[in-house]
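Practice record 12: protein with 5'-O-[(L-methionyl)-sulphamoyl]adenosine.
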Amino acid sequence: MIGLRPKSQILSYRYLGSLQTSSASRGDLRKTHGVRILNKQTNFVTCPIYYATSTPHIGHIHSSVIGDFYHRWNKINDVPSKFSIGTDEHGQKIIRSAAQQGYDHPELLVNNISDLYRRTFKKFSISVASLDDAIYMRTTNPEHHEAAQKLWSRLRSKGHIRIKNYEGWYSTPDESFVGNKEIVEKDGKHFSSVNGHQLEWISEENYIFDFEPFLSEIEAWIEKAVTPDVAKVLIDELKERRNTGNTSLSISRPRKRVPWGVAVPDDPNHTMYVWFEALINYLTAAGYARHENALDFWPPQLQVLGIDIARFHCIYWPAMLLAADLPLPKKVFVHGHWTRNGMKMSKSLDNFVTPKELLELVGNQSDAVRWFCLKHATLKNVDFQDELLRIQSDSDLANKIANLLSRTTSKNLNPSGAYPTLFPDSLLDRPDGEKYLIETVQELPEVYAKFVDQGQLPSAMNCVIRAVEEGLQFMTNEKIFKLDRDIKSERMQKDSAIHACYELLRVSAILLQPAIPQISSKILNRLGIPLENRFYEDAEDSFSGMDGDQFERVGRLLGPNQGHLFKTSALVKKEIEQMAKFEAQELARYDKKHPTRTAPENEIKNTGRKQKERIKQKARAKMAEIKAARDAKKPLDRRQGDMSAEELNMDLHDPNFRAPDFPNRK
Ligand code: MSP
């Protein structure tokens, strides 16, 4: 006999207990030399800051969707949350990129690109606004300069920074010196064995950060905070470093070579190494520039990053925090990479999967891309295929979730247009003898939460889909449509089945809000669920009519029909074709009526091939303009934010470029 499950008093959030900042103990406070945390309850989720060199691609969307997922997860658990994301805007890579793209000054490039990233993130419902408790971080922001300089001074005053001559092979695309083991020589040139980037020999006086004293603490932290597969590799690296004495990091660059950066305090001849400075963005977000000894919130509950930047986040970054006596992040979520046709995506291959391409594939339904990323949020690399994206979203979002909602809310099936009554004894049995859906739906929040808290996002997404499948089977196998409302027992069975499916959809949609916010909100609107009942604890409370009490949702009117919850790729294709057909007909009609006049462009909605051709033509013209301006050495006249993705994808690589001495900010 299945009874009512008492509403849990403790949020599923208990699983995240170990990640919560509020768990900072007295010991932590003593160790942090009295750094006060103003909002101890606030959980802080971070995403990497992206190089503002060129346009975003699927990899950037991927890290961001995962971070945004956890931020939204905090929110539906009613836990205060802050989220940081943004752009990494200094360094040699930026200087070169700006010059290659015909910019007069790196600042013009980073303004454009940062703006482009922010707009792109918005398209994918990734939180970037302060209203959503997001901090959009830009490292050119003076507050970040101040934070970086404060941390530098703190490490210097504690004796962790010294100056020395430093030389080695340097990879500009990675903004990093490369160890001997990772160098290959070919035709007298040197390349990174990890990613093939060409290296340059650099010998210069730099400031050095010594992290030898922290190796053991870092190792212990990695074991706790990082998933075992990645932890093993990192710990091996730590051991190797300990054995070879490779335990320092060069953290400055001569200002002459890299003028575009944060000035080293009290030394006008140096700027900070961009990685050292970029990592500090997380502290900037927490208010480090304003109150060095009283942070708004800290440490991060979760830091999301790709495997390629694990070394920076899991070795150098904890070393910097330990050197500054600051608490370390609670957890690190490391994900793998998207490849295309089995190849790494790169500028030279020009094989990036762009946000535009992604959105076109799914008819602008960005939730499909979020879903796709989350279904592949593992450590493994995944090869991107158009079909995979289409099939997964068609199958899960359209054929399962949307299908169940439209079937069960149709006037035919539920003429009352309200949440029907559940008659526990009339709810049909599954072939295994258990009642349909009750157990599945009641267990779903806990199962889902466990996966989420363990970082197993694909399993979390799949467990909801399995539950929805049970709903669909229920409707089909038991032929709920055929039950006759004029026969009392069948009417009771029908209403109970609909009620159970609504409970399933309600609980699923609450849980999926962090994953597919637009679709979830449409489901909850359609079911008439008030905003204040869309929290995790509301998902924990399902089938409360089972114990015979008046069930609060029963009899409540459904919300308005939300139109298509999700359009299949076939439908999207059909709509585009219809639009193109309409456009062609309209042009033909116009030509016939006005044989001597050309149709004004904006009268006709451009779609498909024609639109693409027009964009390409524009991009070609712009490229020619930029090239001509470069040849004539004339600065281009640009307004902020007016760059199209196409022009930013240009690759005018010039490895010999050296930047002029830009005036620095500070
Ligand atoms: N600016 C540094 C990060 C500094 S954080 C203090 C950087 N930027 S990046 O733009 O190159 O990459 C940022 C994120 O995008 C990383 O998490 C990286 O793993 C992710 N991706 C970049 N390419 C990717 C794929 N092809 N696939 C999945 N994610 C990848 O590194």
